[in-house]
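TICKET #2291
ISSUE: user wants both folds in one file
ATTACHMENT 1:
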Amino acid sequence: MIVDDDPSTREALAAIIGEDGLTTATAGDLREARIQLVRQTPDVVFTDLKLPDGSGVDLFEDLDPRSGVEFIVITGHATVESAVSALKMGAADYLVKPINMQRVKAILSRLPRAGDLKAEIGTLRGELRRMGRFGLMLGNSPAMQTVYDQIGRVAPTAASVLLIGESGTGKEVAAQTLHELSLRRKHSFIAVNCGAISPNLIESEMFGHERGSFTGADRQHKGYFERANGGTLFLDEITEMPIELQVKLLRVLETGMFMRVGTTKELETDVRLIAATNRDPEQAVLEGKLRLDLYHRLNVFPINLPPLHERGKDVELLAQAFLDELNSRYNTKKGFPQAVREMLGSYNWPGNVRELKNYVQRAYIMSSSDSDSTATVPLQISLSKPSAGTAVTIPFGTSLAQADRQLILATLDQCGGVKTRAAEILGISLKTLYNRLVEYGEDASKAAVGEGGEVSESDHENP
């Protein structure tokens, strides 16, 4: 069903939809649309937001949410607010006038699979009850069941998702699950860590570049937005993206258009964006790390991933899954002794699921034989809460830059110079930590030296 007060728009949409072998009904206002709904429930509704007798979103309330009808909203006002509001209310996607007919075709190509997708999500809910699994995610704690419910609701839509959680909580796995349960699952899923790309190269990596556009550009390069066309682009550590590039990212999200570095030719992309951060996004806005307008565009559907210490019995469930994977890979039959199981549940796991997985791998390696139980490997004390006497005192009036410096160097010292662990505790990427240490120079070199004057293991890592 097509609801629009502009006859030419109705005719153009009906023609393009008819090419796909679909029948159409049309209406010029809400009254006519409601008459059509009484006659027959459509599979898809294309509706203008601004109609002579009200808003197209009023039609959402006229249909049972369980009917499976997909809503595509149309707006002549290319504002972020109108599109975001419609997506939050349940629209599957949106179009901006003048309507791009290629985008209509792309939307139609995805919609017929929506029914199958809803059935699959229902199957996954049953799998969760039986095994504690949901797609690629594992755990059956109440906190994770809330996450699964949110993912199940938003995955089939076109809404942007913002994943918020501490380092190591599984944000990329959550993003992959969102993609696998979406209408884009047959297309690419590309994950990008914004904090791991040099600020000088990130624009080229995102949007691509033409041959000769800068020194070293000896060939044309397709960026992430071009390679992810039709699929999902996951931007991890979004607050590490340079502010000037965030402006260009916002434009792509609003218009679907971008330009490769070194050309003025606009290219089109159809990408579903999932972003993630281990910071409080509102605090990041206040600190100038994230543009407010971009935050509103990304924050259509926020999902908070709980830290591991809030997931109860999931710790043991995850540890056993990691051990089962190792046993399967190396054809062994190792298990956890009771003492290890008790220790797993009593530890705080500040490094979250990533730390737990690393621990299981160490314990597996330390066990002596193929059939032996895994060894009781001491947990890294440097990751637990600081002991008495390790607090950092920052006098009133200290600049933020100097306070950052003191905190980073003190944390690195407490971690014995191991940069990966210091970065996890500080909630920043390893790349960001390296950049700060380069700025701090000689003081940082002293903090990165472990006991006995030996350089720590992290000094051999590739930045």
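ATTACHMENT 2:
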Amino acid sequence: MFLEKMQQRNPELIETAFYLHRKEILEANTYILDLDQIKANAALMAKEAAHYNFKLYFMTKQLGRNPLVAKAISAAGIEKAVAVDPWEARTLAQAGIKLGNVGHLVQVPDTMLAEIIFYQPEIMTVYSLAKAKRISEIALAQGKVQPIMLRIYSPDSFNYQGQMGGISLTELDKFVTEIIKLKGITLAGLTAFPCLLFDYETKVIKTTPNLELVVKTAADLAQKYGIKIKQLNTPSVTCQKTISMLAEVGATHGEPGHGLTGTTPYHAYADQGEKPALLYLSEVSHLLDQQAYIFGGGFYSRSHLKYALAAGDNYQVESKLYSASQPAAEMIDYYAALDNSSAKLKVGDTALLAFRTQIFVTRAQVAVVSGIQTGKLKLHGIYNSQGQLLSKKEELL
């Protein structure tokens, strides 16, 4: 999905990936993260957000919850993280990363609430009165008042299957009257997801009804109850391009994830803004019926995979794009297939892919590399998909 843009905008990462595999420094089923470019992308968004007085929390699930990269993003100007689930929150907090938003898209189980509240997240998203009450009880026990944010929806809301839940607009008044009685929490935010979507036909980022719902509901709560909602959090496709769109309608917060690696759907067509900073490395395993099968483990069902760039030792001359396909979502991704009707691919050849991914749901490895843009390569370490260090290389290449 992103290979052609990668060739145009970050060819150095492609060259590095070929080099590291041909030298047997990295193995198949490894994502390579361009640390310097991710920092540059984060700094670009941080500068744009500051211009509009807009706040950002960075997402790391698509990066495999990598603590080293998280620290680099924080240093680049996006100081706090949003954790998609409490296990990501734990990984980041234990690595010293400040938490912005926890509980969206995945609620915090009751058995983990005390731990997460102890980490002092700036805000926690809740879907139910029962969860709000438990947060209040535990926060009081810790001598705190925990700010919370409500995920809201209406009959017009757009929702993804598997991500349903929140406070119905029809029940909101009843909910708020109960919430304001609780002493251990304060209602500080509203959110919905997704608030923006990329239209593949028009190649334009468009708003969803969720965005208007968040903004309008905040105004209604101020009028009815005198509640000032400080945070109107409007995630999805957050990047330099969309910050002004969100700020101008009254939103206050966004949560860049794929924007950090230049891999939102918008970036497959963009010639400006964040540059692609992530590649998946594989290798030809075997050949069969005009297909070259490459090792899997890191594919994702919504990847929009189209091509792979592949070659052997003479990659600087012979590398070319091959049509690629991965198994259906109900199958395990032991392999993906490249069209080898030209019969040019060989067992052991390097295959590079750039597609929309979520590393945290894969079984891939993650290599963090700096110096790609300057030619002074440094492999900082190899991690698993959950952000745990497997091998600390810390070597110049």
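RESOLUTION: both attachments delivered.
EXTRA DETAIL ON ATTACHMENT 2: Residues 109 and 266 are 34 Å apart (CA to CA).
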